[in-house]
Amino acid sequence: MRRTVLGALHEARGAHWMVRQDWEIPGWFAGVEQEYDALQEGAGLVDLSHRTRLRITGRDRRSWFHGQCSQDIAGLPDGRGAYATIMDVRGRLICDLRVYALCDSLLVDVPAGTEPPIAQYLDHYLVMERCEVEDITEAWAQLAVQGPHSCYVLGALLGADICAMEPWEIREFAFADAPIHVARVFHCGEDGFDLFVPAGHAAALWAGLCQPRVEFSVHSVGWEALNVRRVEAGIPWWGFELSPAIVPLEARLDHGVCRTKGCYVGQEIIARIDARGHVNNLLGGFHIAGSALPASGAEIRHAGKKVGLVSSAVESLSLKRPVGMGFFRRELHTPGQILEAAGADGPIALEVTPLPFVPHDAPERKPGQG
Q1: Is the CB of residue 181 less than 8 Å from the CB of residue 188?
Q2: What number of helices (H) and strands (E) belong to the chain?
Q3: CATH domain 7-51+138-232 topology
Q4: Alpha-carbon span 269 to 256, nearest angstrom
Q5: Do residues 152 and 194 touch, judged by C-beta distance below 8 A?
Q6: In the chain, domain spans
Q7: Which partner from 145, 169, 198, 267 sits 20 to 30 angstroms from 183, CA to CA?
Q8: Tens digit of each residue's pLDDT (9 = 90 or more) over 115-129
Q9: Superfamily, domain 53-135
Q10: The pLDDT of residue 362
Q11: Residue among 135, 109, 130, 137 nearest 120 (CA)
Q12: DSSP-assigned letter for residue 350
């Protein structure tokens, strides 16, 4: 089982391990509630190095990738990023991603666990174009600082006015004589930044970010707390809401699809849906009655008929009650609508509730940028 380059450091800090998408990653460190509080009230430090990172170089990189994904890459300015998807010809998801335009390359951040591996998939579509797709997952680590104090933590370390960065802006800084790319992006509805750093400097960067621990309430955060907060924020994740079984618009990923760009794989399906005016199944939220959580993949029923599937369910630490997300018929999305999910001990009542459950507390995002 693979661990990230920071595996030994996490082990020394008492990480409780879990397996996600063929990686062994920290589920929690000191405790889920303490780590959740850091995300909401301080700064949470997260190792995202299990995600896949690609570097696309060459003079045709923009025009080629523009045709592979759903976002406007040709018009993306250097120093900016955007949320996007890659689809097959049926409009089904290959993956969702974040792409950043650097002065000499595109940096692409993709969830772990895509099948086929995304570098292999993209390489298949390289024919005569003058560009190269390089998998830099092992060579570069990826850390995230999430929470209202995240800009102060990074500013203390890098000596720069990080708080002046706009959402989806990416800048290069120097740390211990190594370049690091810092992007202002959010994973759980709170303000935050992703840091891309050469793997050999990742441990030193992690330690540096922990230095202002008391002043800014910096805590190591595992997958469990991050997952609770992102469900509360109504943010879909790969392997839960997002999979090759869905079309991006079913998961409310309209912000990752540019309607004005030229031809790309999957565009015809998106155009058909736009012409029809809606999808039949749509991602929605629900409050869960009782304390039992329906499993991911559990059937959602109405009037005795299957109308959808549960994708995620957690105990909300802000609301002090279970909440969940899933895909179900769009005509059943009226707030207050009662559905039921299949449970191990019988049906579980669900009450349809608008997303997000807990409002986002991050700088305003601009249209088309995630």
Answers
A1: no
A2: 9, 19
A3: Gyrase A; domain 2 (3.30.1360)
A4: 15
A5: no
A6: 7-51+138-232, 53-135, 280-356
A7: 267
A8: 889 999 999 999 989
A9: Aminomethyltransferase beta-barrel domains (3.30.70.1400)
A10: 75
A11: 135
A12: E
